[in-house]
Amino acid sequence: MSLEFTVTHGVPGNDFWDNFSTLWHNSLYRSPFKSPHILRYFVGKTKSQTTVFQYFKEGQLRGVVFLKNNSGTFTFLSDLKTDVNFFVLDRHCTREEIEQFFLQFLQKVKQENWALILNNQPEWAGYMPTFQAAGQASGLYWLNYNYSVCPIAEADSPEELFARIGASHKFRYYANRLTKQQNAVFEALVDDTDLEIWAEEFCQAHIKRWAGTSTPSQYVSDEKRKFLAGCLRAWQFDAVLVRFSIRTPEGRIGFAIGLLEEKSVIFHATTFHPDYWKFSPGKALIYHIAGWMVPHGLRILDFGDGDEPYKYEAANRERKLNRIFISGKLNLLFRTKARTIKIIKDNPRVYRFYQNHLKPVAAQTAALIHLPEWLLSLM
After folding, report:
1. One domain, residues 166 and 144
2. What CATH number is associated with residue 285?
3. Same domain as 277, residue 181
4. 377 vs 271 pLDDT, higher one
5. 232 Cβ contact list (under 8 Å, min separation 6)
6. CB-CB contact of 76 with 67 (8 Å)
């Protein structure tokens, strides 16, 4: 068995992207956050900061890790816009191949004296026990702990899921009320119809929704609005994007960015026009999306990263996301930061204070004084 592991820096060539596209389509989880065009878009943004670890078996690309280098601290490139960070591995990899993939990857980390912050790690991924074992055997500092959750609404069939959500007065009532009182219609856009217009309307509704709060919308920035539109275009190219909206005669009032992953719709980002808050467009969208999922054979509505209360009105279970810190054992400053963050996270009262009071101020201050992006990712 001929195995080869390589590391490249900067923008990969066209041949790589052809091979990666094949790998992604054959990958273990086929995550929309790792789809070819979205990662190519991110590489175009980071360029020389990009590092790609590649694993080949008999000349065929079988595994890839995209990283972003921030002065020696590495994060997943997909942290630019993600809920979950899977490793991209061919679904036909054997257990021994996966073990070698992680052992070689961590050996490179050790050789280069990198420090890694691996956010949004899916605890439920089948390869995680192998990764954990490789990390503990690597001789590196390794800290892996639960950091967040993905609430999901799941059923044995799409029909059962829709029946359960439809049986809830909360969702059916608001969907019907918008139809009857506002002449609202539900949209599910799977092509590029109105893509730029839709993206701008989403951003403007988001800005109005969060105006005057302690967490104003990031989309007040023209750069952030352009970035979102670019992400939507990239996902559209990879056929993983569905744009859901509620439209009245006055225009769209509710929005959800949906991403497709096997038997799931990921409820990636949502907002609504605040003038219609009493009609709960978000709840109406959940009802309509569950109905849309039936003819498309989708039985899991994944609410993405975060434990916001509204998600649990539909979700019937949750999946855990971990954060993993990896570095050389002599990197004492990095290890101290990692332990401090874990202590804050493990203390609910301190963490709530941090989330509600310190984090918004810290993020705004960090942006103003241009702190490194890997520090912003911790906030």
Report:
1. no
2. 3.40.630.30
3. yes
4. 271
5. 195, 198, 199, 241, 243, 257
6. yes
